[in-house]
Design a protein that fits this description.
This protein is α+β, with helices and mostly antiparallel strands and about 450 residues long. It contains 12 helices and 15 strands. Strand 7 and strand 8 form a beta hairpin. Helix 7 packs across helix 9. The longest helix is centred in the N-terminal third of the chain and has 19 residues.
């Protein structure tokens, strides 16, 4: 397809604007952070039309670079690097933290001279070239000891601009990611200060009062595991659930469930996707099991569970505040019991992830640290990630709101569902990543397509 040209790349340091955070020298990492050391970073980007002002068009790269520097002064960890300290002489156990040394965030200016906004926003599948709109491709979180923890790429299109960020996932999660993006857009619009200050003090459970967590040596060959896994040909497509589509699914699910528990918008969309993916995945093998001694096939769904509201953590808590949890159901139940049954199962599972469960997860993790490894999260029917609650379309950098949002190639696998708010309030967009065979089967699945207005 079209090519992309890298015009320049540099490191952007924090501006010296008198912000008190400039003196911050270190940020501890909590279990929620450390668990992701061997995974890939977060990659999200937003698509804009070009500014109407010719003056702004001519100065936009310098403007974004300068406002990024200003914004980083409120978020010193993102301009730093991972630090390590080996404790003990025999076992080489080490602690990890963020060294706020102002080494700088990466800033890349690129041009895709043959790509138009419509090539991205109206494409049936996410075009391959979109992955090249992101910086720090191929860099794992653990490499943050020497590589930037945060990178920005501004790619100029024929009639638009794509602004993307890559953030070390051992340092921040999606909530903190969009907190920074929102803050940057405020500074870009001319604000002197950001509307919500980040809180850098980490939460630790009672069995970790000093905040010191020691990890055994992390074998570098684990970084290569992903490359050794045979992946099917993947397709990515954004399915738009309008406000009306979501309301229709919710009404159906809650009626079928016949429960006083209310199945939420995200829960019902997740249930709809789960059933469709399971129904269309490897359709040729979907035959009744005659041998009753065979175990029933189970379908697994992974959720990224947020801890901020469950602990609760302070507004602006900076870092990770999530963990991965899973639930399963037999494929017979999943496919035969209906949307309401599956939606209610998801609702009950989410409700079970209360404060006690969150604290137990962290306490158990401290006693026996478990690092999530590449390839270990692909053995599921689907994984629901990100959130439709993030403020994506409020990111006005001074020339209008975004048109669309896309994610990069980082941590993509068969069954990954990346959720975003739709451009209109009440809708949900889901960037679906599936094996080509499954995706094409879903596109012919009348029950799945019935949820959408445009089919």
């Amino acid at each position: 397809m079209e090519k992309i040209d890298i015009i320049s790349s540099c490191l952007v340091q924090m501006a010296n604007n008198g912000n008190n955070n400039k003196s911050m020298s270190r940020m501890d990492l909590a279990p929620w952070d450390l668990q992701f050391l061997l995974l890939d970073p977060i990659q999200k980007g937003i698509l804009f039309h070009k500014p109407e002002s010719q003056q702004l068009r001519n100065t936009i790269i310098d403007h974004l670079k300068n406002t990024l520097s200003h914004t980083l002064s409120f978020f010193p960890p993102l301009a730093g690097r991972l630090g390590t300290a080996v404790v003990g002489n025999d076992d080489n156990n080490a602690s990890y933290f963020v060294e706020c040394n102002n080494a700088g965030a990466e800033f890349t200016h690129a041009v895709a001279a043959e790509v138009c906004v419509s090539d991205i926003s109206e494409a049936n599948y996410v075009p391959e070239i979109v992955s090249s709109f992101f910086p720090l491709n191929g860099v794992s979180n653990i490499e943050g000891v020497s590589k930037p923890l945060f990178g920005v790429q501004v790619t100029e299109l024929v009639d638009g601009i794509f602004i993307s960020c890559t953030a070390n996932h051992a340092v921040i999660d999606g909530t903190a990611f969009w907190h920074f993006f929102n803050s940057w857009s405020e500074i870009s619009r001319g604000f002197d200060k950001i509307s919500k200050m980040p809180l850098f003090e980490k939460w630790f459970p009672s069995n970790c009062n000093d905040g010191l967590i020691l990890l055994p040596p992390l074998e570098q060959n684990n970084l290569l595991q992903k490359n050794n896994v045979m992946m099917p040909q993947l397709l990515q497509r954004v399915f738009h659930f309008s406000k009306e589509s979501v309301a229709k699914l919710k009404a159906k699910a809650n009626f079928e469930a016949g429960s006083d528990k209310i199945i939420s918008s995200l829960q019902v969309v997740s249930a709809h996707l789960w059933r469709s993916v399971a129904r269309n995945k490897n359709r040729n093998r979907r035959t009744p099991q005659i041998n009753t001694q065979e175990e029933e096939v189970c379908s697994i769904m992974l959720f990224v569970v947020g801890a901020r509201a469950r602990i609760p953590l302070g507004d602006g808590y900076f870092g990770n505040g999530t963990y991965i949890a899973k639930t399963s159901i037999s494929e017979t139940e999943l496919l035969e019991k209906g949307l309401g049954y599956v939606g209610l199962k998801i609702n009950e599972f989410v409700a079970s992830q209360n404060r006690e469960e969150v604290v137990k997860f962290v306490e158990d993790w401290i006693e026996k640290p478990t690092i999530v490894r590449k390839g270990s999260i692909v053995n599921c029917t689907l994984a629901i990630t990100s959130s439709p609650r993030h403020n994506v379309y409020g990111n006005d950098f001074g020339w209008g709101k975004p048109i669309a949002v896309r994610s990069g190639r980082s941590q993509k696998f068969d069954g990954k569902m990346t959720t975003f708010p739709a451009a209109e309030v009440g809708g949900i967009d889901v960037e679906v990543c599936l094996a080509a065979e499954t995706m094409q089967a879903m596109e012919r699945d009348a029950e799945f397509l019935d949820a959408f207005d445009n089919y």
